[in-house]
Design brief:
This protein starts with 14 loop residues before the first helix and ends in an 8-residue tail after the last helix. Strand 21, helix 23 and strand 22 form a beta-alpha-beta unit. The strands form six sheets. Strands 1, 4, 7, 8, 11, 12, 13, 14, 18 and 19 form a ten-stranded mixed beta sheet that branches. The protein has a six-stranded parallel beta sheet with strand order 22-21-20-23-24-25, with helices on both faces. Strands 15-17-16 form a three-stranded antiparallel beta sheet. With 823 residues, it is α/β, with parallel strands linked by helices. Helices cover 47% and strands 15% of the residues. The chain is globular and about 90 Å long. The structure holds ligand 26Q.
């Protein structure tokens, strides 16, 4: 690949121009003036001025892609967790300092007005944020790319904590308008749903299928410009909003399909109303499948319209111009949808259609958890997408003949590889469909991809040894270092120059200063200042005072048993107990910070949040603790909060049961900002350990093979309960009313899940090793210079984890794109 991207100096404008533009928008777009404007108005006026530059580059980019007839990647994702855009856009355009200065002269503080921007929280967690980092890198590397997804009216719920418990409130990120997005009514698409399939015979006796939908909905696209670093390429993220269609199919009405559709009570507008949390209860499932089809179908139509504009009805070049990356199986329905268009609309024969289709899609897997692999009841497909069900059966039929050639007569293997799961209720396995319909399949970290080959899809790997591959995840250093940690960024600029955001491997040059006492002081002074800033934020958000000299130990991620926030909590309780038993117990003061949303229907996850808050209440107010432990649960964890926590972290908790966290990406962000990882040999932690060196990370616990071995011999959590006094004491403590005065047993579900419940995530098996690793971290922090050296080496050795590297890997191994430069 020839994606040479030399650092081009970001554009710069005289600050008067910026100042004038902001004032002009204040007057002409917002109808206010400098004296009346509040922070919100200043924010909007600043957005509008920035957007002028963005749109100029967007136009040039689109022209350049069109004139060069470029091959492009289309990143299909049900989630894009973009966060706020102002700071990122300013940095990527190279306009941050000048805008800061211009606003200062107007008496306005840029940091304050950036707080006005609501997060675009159109995602659950890692998978959605990965999509956001990837589109940043694609634009930065001048790759022709479009992100496609859903324009949810409500993003992930807003979390409030009341009496220690999580309450979900609607997230209304667009209540006062989103200044970054552009509505494109000229590109509306119409999407069919429900109804029935008619079989017809053509003139030559050939069979033809015609789908008579029962409902047609409109897809209205909203474009969000994605500015690459350096401000040259501006790609788009196109998000679809559903609307009722005025179009009415009278045929179907007469055939009774309308009533059918009404009975389903699917109001077109509800399709893009809410983002589903990642637990998914049976009740809401149907709408989720419709969401998936809706955005996949809109996006495919959009791609085909653009392709036809350049190539007419000649399908022969489609797969050389278009590659579609499926972010998990959520958009996998795009595979039968493209087949439907090629067969029923373009009237290609099966083999020609399949050839195109199977050269167009590639699929990224993000999980090995069996309960997280998507399956849909065949009867639901029949109702909503009757033609797609037929096509899926036919894809499966063709595929089964391939299997027969490799394993003649082997019905066990056929059952395993079939797209259809037989049983009481026939199910469609979206993972199998995705592997069969894609030319490449990747996991998201080395260990995860190895397990995909070995445990998840071993027979597919045997059939197609080159299809399964690895692309290790990455994060954009523009948002996750340059923008969120300006002081450290300035120090790095001073030491090694300012092109590291484009060439993150250059951070390695910092390692020459790792032993330098002066640099250590500078590095740790910045960490301290970031901790002071976070302490202020924590006080404002929770009323809890924390000591910036204490170790800031953070665990920030979705709440899930496999991520083991409860392992962290049990250890905190153990420390508390040690302090009560021995007031002179030797430990560095430590602040344990948690940020996590639990899926609304995930009872035990909510119980863990409650337990953290109840333990916090007790520990924080116990004089005997003498300030040595503080526990803080920060409500409503989201991208913008992560940007405040990460620069202030000393310790990063990455403590999933080995084999269960596909990659993790928070682990990369924290280490990049100089936090030391306490972690298991899981996901990308393994590669982080390889990069930073074993002496700069605290690894503990069972590895993947040992977890597997323990399962084979039979894991009994009671062995650990009875053989480790501390484990027994803290678990029994949970059952008393010590942490929940007047409410004994309020935390008992946690103990139950770890004992009678079988402790499926091996919390007790890893407890002792975890406690030892924490003790090592505690000792290490006592040596100020030693700690500084380790922290510096973490930052210096994170170069591999830039999402630019991930994107270059995708480009080389899968997408085969060429960069297209923009003037
Ligand atoms: C599925 C069905 C119905 C409703 C929701 C969902 C759903 C939604 C989101 C299922 C899963 C997700 C998100 C998964 C996710 O974030 N996975 C994470 O992906 C990261 C990026 O690759 C990895 O780093 C994490 O290890 C992985 O957990």
């Amino acid at each position: 690949m020839s994606a040479k991207n030399t650092f081009s100096k970001p554009s710069s404008l005289p600050k008067n121009t910026i100042k004038d533009a902001i004032v002009r928008h204040l007057h002409c777009s917002l109808g206010t003036d400098e004296n009346k404007a509040n922070n919100h108005a200043w924010w909007k006026a600043t957005c509008a001025s920035v957007q002028e530059h963005v749109l100029e580059q967007l136009r040039k980019t689109q022209k350049s892609h069109y004139l060069n007839d470029t091959r492009a990647v289309h990143y299909f994702s049900a989630e894009f967790l973009m966060g706020r855009l102002m700071s990122n856009n300013l940095h990527n355009l190279g306009l941050f300092e000048q805008t800061d200065q211009a606003l200062k002269e107007l008496g306005v503080n840029l940091t304050d007005i950036m707080e006005e921007e609501p997060d675009m929280a159109l995602g659950n967690g890692g998978l959605g944020r990965l999509a956001a980092c990837f589109i940043d890198s694609l634009a930065t590397l001048d790759m022709p790319a479009v992100g496609y997804g859903l324009h949810y009216e409500h993003g992930l719920f807003r979390q409030e904590i009341k009496n220690g418990e999580q309450i979900e409130r609607p997230d209304s990120w667009r209540d006062y308008g989103n200044p970054w997005e552009i509505c494109r009514p000229e590109s509306i698409q119409e999407i069919p749903l429900y109804g029935y399939v008619e079989t017809k015979y053509g003139e030559n006796g050939e069979i033809k299928k015609e789908w008579h939908p029962g409902l047609i909905v409109k897809g209205l696209p909203w474009d969000i410009p994605v500015v690459g670093y350096g401000g040259k390429t501006v790609n788009v993220l196109r998000l679809w909003q559903s609307q009722a269609s005025d179009y009415f199919n009278w045929d179907v009405f007469n055939a009774g399909g309308y009533v059918d559709a009404q009975k389903e009570n699917v109001q077109a507008e509800t399709i893009s109303k809410v983002l589903y949390p990642n637990d998914e209860t049976e009740a809401g499932k149907e709408l989720r499948l419709i969401q998936q089809y809706f955005f996949s179908a809109c996006s495919l139509k959009d791609i085909i319209r653009r392709y036809k504009r350049a190539h007419g009805d000649d399908w022969s070049r489609f797969s050389s111009q278009v590659v579609i990356q499926l972010n998990d199986t959520h958009p996998a329905i795009a595979i039968p949808e493209l087949m439907r268009i090629l067969l029923d609309r373009a009237e290609l024969n099966w083999d020609s259609a399949w050839k195109i289709c199977s050269k167009t899609f590639a699929y990224t897997n993000h999980t090995l958890l069996p309960e997280a692999l998507e399956k849909w009841p065949a009867r639901m497909f029949k109702k909503i997408l009757p033609r797609h069900l037929e096509i899926i059966y036919e894809i499966n039929h063709h595929f089964m003949s391939e299997v027969e050639k490799v394993w003649p007569g082997d019905n066990v293997i056929k059952q395993k590889l079939s797209i259809i799961e037989e049983g009481n209720e026939k199910m469609i396995r979206m993972g199998n469909l995705s592997v069969i319909g894609s030319f490449a399949v990747n996991g998201v970290a080395e260990i995860h991809s190895a397990l995909v080959k070995k445990n998840l899809f071993p027979e597919f790997h045997e059939m197609w040894p080159n299809k399964l591959t690895n692309v290790t995840n990455g994060i954009t250093p523009r948002r996750w270092l340059k923008a969120c940690n300006p002081k450290l960024s300035a120090l790095i600029d001073e030491k090694i120059g300012n092109d590291w955001p484009l060439h993150l491997e250059k951070l390695e040059q910092l390692s020459q200063f790792a032993d330098n006492a002066k640099f250590q002081k500078q590095f740790m002074k910045i960490k301290h200042e970031n901790k002071v800033a976070l302490a202020k934020e924590v006080l404002a958000l929770t009323g809890i005072e924390i000591n910036p000299k204490a170790i800031f130990d953070v665990q920030i991620k979705r709440l899930h048993e496999y991520k083991r926030q409860h392992l962290n909590l049990l250890h905190i309780m153990a420390l508390y107990r040690r302090l009560l038993e021995n007031p002179n117990y030797d430990m560095q003061p430590r602040v344990f910070l948690f940020g996590a949303k639990a899926a609304p229907g995930y009872k035990l996850a909510k119980d863990i949040i409650y337990a953290i808050n109840q333990v916090a209440e007790k520990v924080n107010n116990d004089k005997r603790v003498n300030g040595k432990i503080k526990v803080v649960f920060l409500p409503n964890y989201r991208v913008s909060l992560a940007e405040k926590i990460i620069p202030a972290a000393d310790v990063s908790e990455q403590i999933s049961t080995a084999g269960l966290e596909a990659s993790g990406t928070g682990n990369m962000k924290l280490s990049l900002n100089g936090a030391l990882t306490v972690g298991t040999l899981d996901g990308a932690n393994i590669e982080i350990a390889e990069e930073v060196g074993d002496e700069n990370i605290f690894i503990f616990g069972l590895n993947v093979d040992e977890v597997h071995e323990l399962d084979k011999v039979g894991y009994n959590p009671f062995d650990f309960y009875y053989n480790n006094k501390e484990i027994k004491a803290v678990l029994d403590w949970l059952e008393t009313d010590y942490f929940t005065p007047g409410k004994p047993g309020a935390l008992a579900s946690l103990k139950y899940s770890l004992l009678e419940g079988g402790d499926p995530y091996k919390v007790l098996a890893d407890f002792e090793s975890y406690s030892d690793a924490q003790q090592k971290a505690d000792k290490a922090y006592g040596d100020k210079s030693g700690w500084a050296k380790m922290a510096i080496l973490n930052t210096a050795r994170m170069g591999k984890f830039t999402s630019d590297r991930s994107i270059k890997d995708y480009v080389e191994k899968i997408w085969q794109l060429e960069p297209c430069t923009v003037e």
